[in-house]
Amino acid sequence: xxxxxxxxxxxxxxxxxxxxxxxxxxxxxxxxxxxxxxxxxxxxxxxxxxxxxxxxxxxxxxxxxxxxxxxxxxxxxxxxxxxxxxxxxxxxxxxxxxxxxxxxxxxxxxxxxxxxxxxxxxxxxxxxxxxxxxxxxxxxxxxxxxxxxxxxxxxxxxxxxxxxxxxxxxxxxxxxxxxxxxxxxxxxxxxxxxxxxxxxxxxxxxxxxxxxxxxxxxxxxxxxxxxxxxxxxxxxxxxxxxxxxxxxxxxxxxxxxxxxxxxxxxxxxxxxxxxxxxxxxxxxxxxxxxxxxxxxxxxxxxxxxxxxxxxxxxxxxxxxxxxxxxxxxxxxxxxxxxxxxxxxxxxxxxxxxxxxxxxxxxxxxxxxxxxxxxxxxxxxxxxxxxxxxxxxxxxxxxxxxxxxxxxxxxxxxxxxxxxxxxxxxxxxxxxxxxxxxxxxxxxxxxxxxxxxxxxxxxxxxxxxxxxxxxxxxxxxxxxxxxxxxxxxxxxxxxxxxxxxxxxxxxxxxxxxxxxxxxxxxxxxxxxxxxxxxxxxxxxxxxxxxxxxxxxxxxxxxxxxxxxxxxxxxxxxxxxxxxxxxxxxxxxxxxxxxxxxxxxxxxxxxxxxxxxxxxxxxxxxxxxxxxxxxxxxxxxxxxxxxxxxxxxxxxxxxxxxxxxxxxxxxxxxxxxxxxxxxxxxxxxxxxxxxxxxxxxxx
Length: 697
Prior knowledge:
The protein is of the alpha/beta class. It folds into two domains: about 50-365, Nitrilase/N-carbamoyl-D-aminoacid amidohydrolase, CATH 3.60.110.10; about 380-695, HUPs (Rossmann fold, 3-Layer(aba) Sandwich). About 35% of the residues lie in helices and about 20% in strands. The strands form six sheets. Strands 3-19-4-5-6-7-8 form a seven-stranded mixed beta sheet. It has a seven-stranded mixed beta sheet with strand order 18-17-15-13-12-11-20. A three-stranded parallel beta sheet has the order 21-22-23, with helices on both faces. β17 (about 295-300) and β18 form a beta hairpin. It is elongated. The protein starts with a strand and ends with a helix.
């Protein structure tokens, strides 16, 4: 055999001959799938990739019992993966020989050929800076093991044997293979290298050199049946620090099995707070007894990122970027992670591997989910289910609160109705709670409190909502009282300054508090930015909206318009949705119109909720948030606009902590909460100077 290390690269239409092996990248026609295709642009290049690692799983065409041809097929995929700057590539179980060799696994000749072709594979990849995993049978001390070989640049890093050997129904692997715990060695001689052998090792992968060297991820590996067991080996590997877990599999296809397999993989990634790369054999395996569909998927902390198309005879390469930084934060945020391990992580051997960083490739064209509305599911069906689920949570919480104070309130509550989104959502929650409790809606006292900036449109909608739902109504103008109050403290009302705005908000809260048990209306986005008046609309007896961001409020209200319970107010709901968001605390130049537009003052809620999610839920630094925002909102907001509003968000978030320290009770619904008794506890006298400075860099 000749190995060509020079000359021209083969074209995509060249045929690989058995006597001539071309060095990678072997770019060949095949299906390459990524989570998303992002536009390129210089302004998208950060100084680093913020913890992203590019990984791939590959389903090659398999030539059963022909290791030489399998090496050729795998090299095609290796070449394409190298072109895409993949850092970790995993092939299926027994990919060197094929899984369906049957009693050919008992032939020493096949074992010999597998080792020889592994050596060829190592030779062909000795200049490729990528961690690659292949499967093969390996004879060790007269016992045959089904193993995964992890290699990098021609060097074998470790050999991982399969632990659980299936021997039921159509499986009879124990006819050929032994489980990992029957091995009596911790090292094995393979292709002239002495390498670790066993399931008690993880690979720490680094980039950089010297003082700049740092770990980017930790790798753990298991094989097929292992993940189907009560305590998979990968669970122990995760407790030992593995953030990316791989599974080389050859799982046959049956009706309904694919759905179960997906749940299995996503749940294991969730339990381990890890990425889980699963790849199984394709339809080129023998179909004499079973069928293989080439199921391959990558999950990240319970979420399926990407999955192959089933029953494809064409090779498939699935690529995505894993946010290891986020995974590591999830783990240290979970104080219980690793507490129940039955295997001491200290017994794991740590193998080091240093690879070249793919910063430039990932920065220019990251393969990450880009969601403008991280609080809102993009799928219509899932979004409807989520909205109904939120209604169930909020209404249940409100019912429990009302039942606890029933003797005090006498089945009566008070709520201010402005004709805006937030008060409408709280009103809908209250209506549904009363209906489910079987209480008379007359017990809901809806109060309209027009001020100097109240518009005709919002007042009309407020009145319609009240009249059409049969609740009790009280209308109290606040203009006279606020005027008297302001003059009493030496301030002539101008209805345009901050003092006039705050006085109106406090007067409304004063009125409501004197009338009974007050249902609050402020949402999570307003709480985050302090867009509320201290001891004004910031206060209530109970706030069902407090854990719901503005972008989600809109979808919840829209969902309510389609519910049978609210059909009588559907037209009013839709008109409130179409009304610009405004506190209406500034007197309009034209009577009856809306003068104040909230988003003109504090910025677009779609951006602020994006910032809020990634800062609080994911713990990202400002620079990473800005980078993701540039990618996500490309063509909608430029870099300068994003940085402007990110800076404004950080300043307002920092300054508003003293208001959050005194929030009323509100139910935790989403995974982001700013309750001082729950997810967010911070000192009110600390300024986020470092965060703000990073935006200005």
